[in-house]
UniProtKB/TrEMBL annotation:
PANTHER family: TRNA/TMRNA (URACIL-C(5))-METHYLTRANSFERASE (PTHR47790), TRNA_TMRNA (URACIL-C(5))-METHYLTRANSFERASE (PTHR47790:SF2). Its EC number is 2.1.1.35. It comes from the Bacteria. The active site is at 324 (nucleophile), 324, 358 (proton acceptor). S-adenosyl-L-methionine binds at residues 190, 218, 223, 239, 299. Gene3D superfamilies: 2.40.50.1070, Vaccinia Virus protein VP39. Dual-specificity methyltransferase that catalyzes the formation of 5-methyluridine at position 54 (m5U54) in all tRNAs, and that of position 341 (m5U341) in tmRNA (transfer-mRNA). It catalyses: uridine(341) in tmRNA + S-adenosyl-L-methionine = 5-methyluridine(341) in tmRNA + S-adenosyl-L-homocysteine + H(+); uridine(54) in tRNA + S-adenosyl-L-methionine = 5-methyluridine(54) in tRNA + S-adenosyl-L-homocysteine + H(+). It holds the Pfam family tRNA_U5-meth_tr. This is tRNA/tmRNA (uracil-C(5))-methyltransferase. The gene is trmA. GO terms for biological process: methylation. GO terms for molecular function: tRNA (uracil(54)-C5)-methyltransferase activity, S-adenosyl methionine-dependent. It comes from Candidatus Sodalis endolongispinus. Keywords: Methyltransferase, S-adenosyl-L-methionine, Transferase, tRNA processing.
Length: 370
């Protein structure tokens, strides 16, 4: 069953099962009991992607059952934000009678914010031209006239038509401060805004009273960097994706934060630089030796940290690790637990009604490993 077909009352049972599973996975590492951060049981996803199904004169959103691959018509998407659900209806109503908008329309992506902004991306299996642009602009203007803060993008093979701009600006209140986060279409952002706030506040609590500077790998658009900057003298953060780096630079300026430096490079490259195995032009203006990093923060992809990076992070007294895959986290902990002890453990339910778990650990170096 997919999330939109599940009764909300199953949420508590599924969350309890995740907590039990995580606890069992952490037993070999003598981790403390996990703090559990629940999601809203409905309307928690801020972005969603749907295939579009053409059925003679009808047109509607679909998803596929992950087990049976059966096609499921989606007119209301329970996990989606309220704005996604409103726009789903608005878009289908507007597109059905418009040949220029519906012809070979393959997919629609929605990116929304808690502050009421949206980017809608229409993806086609045909070339897009000025006639499409004019028709799409008419729909955008009609929706804006009705109060929607909306941007439109058209995508086709090797083509991207952006009617205005390709981003939304989210505003999240984190531990009493409102932060602006530019989120760029087709770039990674945290899907569950409410749980993201829980993650940021947990990270802040875990770094309360921290000393010196912070090194962060895989910083994305600065999601954690901006929130954690208040607890450190300086933050040096790395990210490889160019759109995310551009968004991070905007976010630093928009939030008037002056102690965060973003470097566009991968975690593997930064590890090579720290080991003095390679020199990088991108680091010439940065005096790495001037940083006094007592804490390192990592939020790696599902594959976790590579072996060289695991070895590098062991040099830091405090490791804050956010993981979207407890299996790869456990592989990394098999090494990290030799030198560090888990002081905090958290489960963040980013993806209700699925088996996916997001979790966080704070590791502190053992006295015997100094």
């Amino acid at each position: 069953m997919t999330p939109e077909t599940l009764p909300i009352r199953q949420y508590e049972q599924q969350l309890a099962e995740k907590a039990e599973r995580l606890g069992q996975m952490m037993l070999p590492f003598q981790a403390p009991e996990a703090q559990i951060f629940r999601s809203q049981p409905s309307h928690y996803r801020m972005h969603a992607e749907f295939r579009v199904w053409h059925d003679e004169d009808d047109l509607y959103h679909i998803m596929f059952d992950p087990q049976t691959k059966a096609r499921i018509r989606i007119d209301h998407f329970m996990p989606g934000s309220p704005l996604i659900n409103v726009l789903m209806t608005e878009m289908m109503t507007a597109i059905r009678p418009e040949p220029l908008l519906r012809a070979k329309l393959f997919q629609i992506d929605y990116l929304t914010t808690q502050s009421g902004e949206a980017v809608v991306t229409l993806i086609y299996h045909r070339p897009l031209d000025d006639a499409w642009r004019e028709c799409a602009a008419g729909l955008r203007d009609a929706l804006r006239a009705r109060g929607y803060h909306i941007q439109f993008i058209g995508r086709a093979s090797k083509t991207k038509i952006c009617l205005d701009h390709d981003y939304v600006d989210e505003r999240l209140t984190v531990a009493g401060r409102t932060l602006i986060y530019r989120q760029i279409e087709n770039s990674f952002t945290q899907p569950n805004a409410g749980v993201n706030i829980h993650m940021l506040e947990w990270a802040l609590a875990a770094t309360e009273g921290a000393q010196g500077d912070l090194l962060e790998l895989y910083c994305g658009n600065g999601n954690f960097s901006l929130a954690l900057a208040r607890h450190f003298d300086r933050v040096l953060a790395t990210e490889i994706a160019k759109p995310s780096v551009e968004a991070a630079h905007y976010n630093i300026a928009a939030n008037h934060i002056d102690n965060v430096q973003i470097v566009r490079m991968s975690a593997e490259e930064f590890t090579q630089a720290m080991r003095k195995e390679r020199e990088f032009t991108r680091l010439k203006a940065i005096d790495l030796q001037s940083y006094r990093c007592e804490t390192i923060f990592v939020d790696p992809p599902r594959s976790g940290l590579d072996e060289a990076t695991v070895s590098m992070v062991q040099a830091y007294p405090r490791i804050l690790y956010i993981s979207c895959n407890p299996d790869s986290l456990c592989r990394n902990l098999a090494t990290l637990s030799n030198t560090h002890t888990i002081e905090r453990l958290a489960l963040f339910d980013q993806f209700p009604y699925t088996h996916h778990m997001e979790c966080g650990v704070l590791l502190v170096r053992k006295a015997t490993a100094v």
